[in-house]
């Protein structure tokens, strides 16, 4: 069972989003197969497996998301996504919810760190060669755009997704470096951490890099090193001005991180259009939204400016919920996140050197970053979210039952 889950982690790490979409039915059968095996081990005790009292907010979320079927103009498309959400999201959540414990989380985290290092190394090779290994498979729009901008895609097709993936894995890489006593292994984990960090930076994903800083600040806050946090914020603000002094040859760095360009991007780019479109959709359909996956389809009705179909996205998982499912779906999403966050806080009891703590830090970075693009519409971030959700729920029960991880 453990090996089969490792294969799934490898799939979401190394397979481009285009291929993941093409072979989605196979992945669905794979997850259902894992669920069946897991249920066999639990003697098909459905009540204990799916309907524990602590999981009520998961079911509330799934129920409230069904309102996204009410106003959908393309009902088949909306229903298809809803089934995908419940089957894959719920399947992954309950699989990890009932499988993870304080021992196998160590093995799975190590596997994820190794995969992240390999993905990062492939991305750094891409930076040197200016060619992606999946050229011809990756969507041509993304390939031309990001190769021109010198932003690495590695195996995940899009720098934003790659950055989100590396951000989620980075805390685990640091954890193993921190606790390792053997000198050789410690150096190995240091190399892993450096590769992941360099690849994360070379995505030039502002949200992912800031998400990494959010994780660092959360960790420092827990360590009561709050003066260091103020120093970090001061350094960031200073750096956002200093990069403007770089020569014009450093266009990507200036454009991605210069304070003037960042403000212009927020208030005078296609993101601004998406924010206004989401607001217009919410105003017209405040309770049930416009329907699941209907944002692109309905975009022209609510926008004053036309945009290419491929970038007609909410630019935020939070905006996606409020535009497509209204107050009901958005409330269910927020309640679920708050519930998971509170569960995550319980993991801190494991101690500052606990893998439990670093799972929580990974979750903090994830929910921050998904506020900056449509993360849950991409397969790898979607899978990672439900893996983290199920893992947090499982480990929280471990802490409540007095089982603390080895450090």
Describe the structure.
There is one protein chain. The protein is an all-alpha fold and 407 residues long. The chain has one domain. It has helices at residues 2-14, 17-22, 24-41, 46-50, 56-65, 75-99, 104-129, 140-148, 159-179, 183-202, 206-222, 226-242, 251-257, 259-267, 270-284, 295-302, 317-346, 355-369, 379-400. Helix 7 (104-129) packs across helix 10, helix 13 crosses helix 14 (259-267) and helix 17 packs parallel to helix 19 (379-400). The longest helix is centred in the last third of the chain and has 30 residues, at 317-346. The two termini are 24 Å apart. The mean pLDDT is 86.
Question: How would you summarize this macromolecular structure in one to three sentences?
Answer:
The protein has 407 residues and is an all-alpha fold. It contains 19 helices and no strands.
Set out the fold topology:
Elements (H helix, E strand, L loop, with lengths): L1 H13 L2 H6 L1 H18 L4 H5 L5 H10 L9 H25 L4 H26 L10 H9 L10 H21 L3 H20 L3 H17 L3 H17 L8 H7 L1 H9 L2 H15 L10 H8 L14 H30 L8 H15 L9 H22 L7
Helix pairs in contact: 1-7, 3-6, 5-17, 6-19, 7-9, 7-10, 9-10, 9-11, 9-18, 11-12, 11-18, 13-14, 15-17, 17-18, 17-19, 18-19
